[in-house]
């Protein structure tokens, strides 16, 4: 009796397993996307959230176009090679066709995996490594958006007025300073934007907090900038909206980052530089779908900007001055048409009628050196001796549109008008 | 510039470190009755979240405070039930409360944010108004000190009041004496007719409720912006545990501990401001790298813990029975 029962049970199990297995074989996905996150996919704000939203939006758009896209996620993966490799292996075993890694520290593991899994495309955000067949990196010209937000900040500071030091004082809470080209180029672009309105009367105080995000410290740093240096506009390169909320509490103004922070600081926030990651993700997934063999030719090392819609500024709030929209649009047009770019060594200004004009003043660093280019491709800071003569020593500080400087991390100077109070 | 910087520094020092005082005093209540409660971080997180949500939804600062106390108190109740009634290991239970509390913070916070919409502090007019600074007449007119110490929101005054009252309660009341006896030598207290379990329960609950107010404070202090990655408490609960040792289990000394620790924490942000305002006297602060300032509060904590552990017990004032469960029939 027992034997019969066990036979029947075994048969039932076998049937149910087969039934379940056939259930799983629904229509096959056109492409399986793997994503490796540094944070949790359930976050509602911040870096991982921005990427996750970008990937899911891109997939939704592709689904509307009739593609069947499958998404696999490995989240909370720390920047350790063993952990990243394990995540990659897991995604590869589940049939991923393209794998995105969003954190800088994934670089080593991605580089290795690209040779190991030749039929999978690896795409790494914020990194600098790549190969010729299946491994690229992607990032964006957020400094273009920062320049535009700098114009809004400059116009607002002009309206509020000068401080007792005879300058228009503007603060900037930054995660880091010159040690990362990412933060450094952001500070310089913001400052140049401010200077397009205020010229040499602008003074930008940078305060580093030494980490990408710490809400309490971000807020205190903004408060310190306001009550020590009488800053009337607070820019930021850190995660939370606390600098904007501090600006609101102190009755001054600010430019956020990453998302429109107007709801957090309705009376203070002007506009924020923002990322549209889905622009890249859609492009990359679509290419991997249609023409994976030529991924590196078509997508390659991706460095999108305003033109691609990859970066932008959030809608101008009512706190902005009346002429802000027109002036930002004028500069935006110049960037979009390719006529001018932030680090092209040409400074912009606005004439009496509010029209944007190119100036002839040279780009100088805040320790008095001049940034010079001889071939319009590479830029150098020339050292001068005490008498002001060139010594012949020079340092390369990146190419014409800073792609090189960001990826190689060679931009390591502040433009004149920046004071880093942390250093 | 000097005046603004000094005022800003001291003001910041008070405003951003008062939660430590709540946490420390709360923990002292726990440890004085012989319970080493390592659940401060979690208890404060639970208090902060429910205090904020209830306060905003009911548009009442008082209900917010009550909710923070009740929900943090529930964490205390859980701790007391496990360690006093069930005689579980205190360290493990405390750590569990921390994990559980943070889990509840993220779980409930995420759920509310996603499904109900995050309530805004500004929209809850009574909460926003109640949080506004209430300058103390006359005292707040003193230059520098007035703005730095006497122009704060009610939570700052309440925290100081709680610390002083707790000190008085522990030192001068009969109940306070009994409570200390429970923490020093529960068997002796028991033989004198003190109900050990009742004292432990009451003070663990009270201490946890005080921690809850500190948590609520931290939520309001960043204007209630929901933080999905770092959370609101962000390590303050752990610092409070260390400050108890610095305070020598004395709530009044906790005030001192909070401010000494706060000086280092505030220097992290204000060091350059101080240099800019007083270049001659404090110019040397500039030579210290930012990383050192960031690490300093934690180095200080480690040093305090180390110094506290090598000091003789009689000098450190540590309750003799802290961390040890009391078995009545144990000999």
Describe this entry's structure for a reader.
The complex is a heterodimer of chains A (423) and B (331). Chain A is built from twelve helices and 18 strands. Chain A has helices at 2-24, 47-64, 81-93, 107-116, 142-160, 181-198, 215-229, 242-250, 277-290, 295-298, 324-336, 403-408; strands at 31-36, 69-74, 98-101, 121-125, 135-140, 168-174, 202-208, 233-237, 253-255, 273-275, 302-304, 311-313, 348-350, 356-358, 371-373, 378-384, 390-399, 418-420. The longest helix of chain A has 23 residues, at 2-24. Chain A starts with a helix and ends with a strand. The model of chain A has no long low-confidence stretch (mean pLDDT 87). Chain B has a two-stranded antiparallel ribbon with strand order 1-2. The model of chain B has no long low-confidence stretch (mean pLDDT 91). Chain B has helices at 2-32, 40-58, 61-85, 90-116, 125-131, 145-149, 154-172, 174-184, 186-191, 196-221, 236-246, 251-277, 279-282, 290-310, 313-316, and strands spanning 134-135, 151-152. Chain B has one domain (12-244). The radius of gyration of chain B is 20 Å and the shape is globular. By secondary structure, chain B is mainly α. Chains A and B meet through helix 7 and helix 8 of A and helix 1, helix 4, helix 12 and helix 14 of B.
Q: Structural class of the helix and strand makeup of chain B?
A: mainly alpha
One letter per element, helices H and strands E, the order of chain A comes to: HEHEHEHEEHEHEHEHEEHHEEHEEEEEHE
- Domain count of chain A, please report it: 2
Approximate helicity band of chain B = over 70%
Mean pLDDT of chain B: 91
The number of helical segments of chain B is: 15
What name is given to the CATH topology of the largest domain in chain A? Rossmann fold
Total of helices of chain A: 12
- Proper CATH architecture of the largest domain in chain A: 3-Layer(aba) Sandwich
Instruction: List the uncertain runs of chain B.
Output: none
% residues in beta strands of chain A: 15-25%
CATH superfamily of the largest domain in chain A: Response regulator
**Main sheet makeup of chain B:** 2 strands, antiparallel
Q: Given the C-alpha coordinates, what overall shape of chain B results?
A: globular
């Amino acid at each position: 009796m027992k034997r019969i029962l066990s036979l029947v049970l075994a048969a039932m199990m076998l049937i149910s397993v087969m039934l379940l297995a056939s259930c799983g074989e629904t229509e096959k996905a056109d492409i399986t996307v793997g994503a490796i996150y540094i944070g949790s996919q359930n976050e509602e704000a911040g870096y991982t959230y921005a990427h996750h939203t970008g990937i899911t939006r891109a997939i939704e758009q592709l689904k509307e176009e009739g593609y069947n896209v499958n998404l696999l996620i490995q989240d909370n993966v720390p920047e350790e090679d063993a952990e990243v490799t394990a995540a990659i292996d897991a995604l590869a075993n589940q049939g991923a066709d393209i794998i995105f890694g969003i954190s800088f520290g994934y670089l080593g593991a991605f580089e290795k995996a690209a040779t190991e899994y030749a039929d999978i495309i690896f795409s790494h955000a914020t990194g600098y490594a790549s190969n010729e067949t299946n491994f690229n990196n992607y990032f964006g010209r957020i400094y273009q958006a920062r320049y535009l937000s700098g114009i809004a900040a400059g116009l607002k500071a002009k309206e509020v007025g000068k401080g007792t030091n005879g300058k228009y004082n503007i603060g900037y809470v930054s995660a880091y300073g010159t040690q990362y080209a990412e933060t450094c180029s952001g500070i310089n672009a913001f400052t140049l934007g401010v200077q397009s309105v205020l010229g040499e009367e602008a003074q930008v105080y940078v305060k580093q907090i030494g980490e990408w995000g710490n809400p309490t410290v971000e807020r205190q740093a903004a408060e310190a900038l306001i009550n020590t240096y009488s800053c009337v506009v607070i820019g930021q390169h850190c995660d939370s909206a606390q600098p904007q909320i501090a600006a609101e509490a102190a009755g001054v103004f600010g430019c956020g980052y990453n998302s429109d922070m107007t709801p957090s600081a309705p009376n203070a926030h002007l506009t924020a530089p923002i990322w549209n990651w889905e622009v890249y993700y859609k492009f990359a997934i679509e290419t991997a779908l249609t023409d994976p063999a030529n991924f590196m030719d078509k997508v390659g090392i991706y460095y999108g900007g305003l033109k691609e819609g990859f970066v932008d500024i959030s809608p101008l709030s009512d706190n902005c001055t009346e002429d802000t929209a027109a002036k930002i649009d004028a500069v935006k047009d110049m960037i979009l048409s390719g006529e001018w770019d932030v680090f092209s060594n040409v400074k912009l200004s606005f004439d009496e009628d509010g029209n944007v004009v190119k100036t002839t003043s040279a780009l100088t660093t805040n320790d008095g050196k001049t940034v010079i280019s001889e071939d319009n491709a590479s830029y150098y800071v020339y050292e001068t001796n005490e008498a002001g003569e060139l010594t012949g020593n020079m340092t390369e500080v990146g190419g014409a549109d800073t792609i090189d400087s960001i990826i190689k991390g060679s931009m390591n100077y502040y433009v004149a008008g920046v004071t880093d109070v942390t250093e | 510039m000097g005046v603004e910087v000094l005022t800003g520094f001291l003001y910041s020092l008070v405003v951003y470190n008062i939660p430590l005082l709540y946490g420390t005093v709360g923990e002292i209540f726990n440890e004085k009755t012989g319970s080493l409660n390592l659940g401060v971080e979690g208890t404060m997180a639970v208090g902060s979240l429910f205090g904020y949500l209830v306060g905003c939804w009911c548009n009442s600062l008082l209900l917010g405070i009550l909710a923070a106390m009740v929900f943090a108190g529930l964490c205390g109740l859980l701790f007391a039930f496990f360690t006093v009634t069930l005689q579980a290991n205190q360290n493990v239970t405390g750590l569990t409360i921390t994990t559980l509390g943070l889990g509840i913070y993220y779980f409930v916070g995420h759920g509310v944010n996603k499904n109900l919409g995050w309530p805004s502090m500004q929209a809850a007019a009574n909460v926003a108004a109640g949080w506004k600074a209430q300058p103390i007449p006359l005292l707040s007119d003193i230059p520098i000190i007035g703005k730095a110490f006497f122009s704060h929101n009610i939570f700052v005054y309440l925290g100081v009041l709680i610390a002083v009252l707790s000190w008085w309660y522990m030192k001068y009341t009969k109940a306070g004496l009994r409570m200390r006896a429970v923490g020093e030598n529960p068997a002796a207290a028991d033989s004198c007719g003190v109900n050990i379990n009742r004292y432990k329960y009451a003070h663990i609950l009270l201490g946890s409720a005080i921690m809850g107010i500190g948590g609520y404070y931290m939520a309001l202090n960043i204007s209630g912006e929901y933080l999905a990655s770092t959370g609101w408490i962000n390590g303050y609960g752990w610092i409070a545990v260390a400050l108890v040792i610095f305070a020598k289990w004395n709530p009044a000394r906790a005030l001192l501990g909070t401010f000494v620790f706060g000086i280092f924490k505030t220097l992290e942000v204000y060091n350059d401001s101080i240099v800019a305002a007083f270049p001659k006297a404090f110019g040397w602060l500039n030579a210290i790298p930012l990383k050192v300032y960031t690490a300093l509060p934690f180095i200080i904590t480690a040093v305090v813990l180390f110094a506290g552990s090598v000091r003789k017990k009689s000098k450190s004032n540590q309750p003799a029975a802290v961390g040890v469960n009391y078995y009545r029939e144990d000999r």
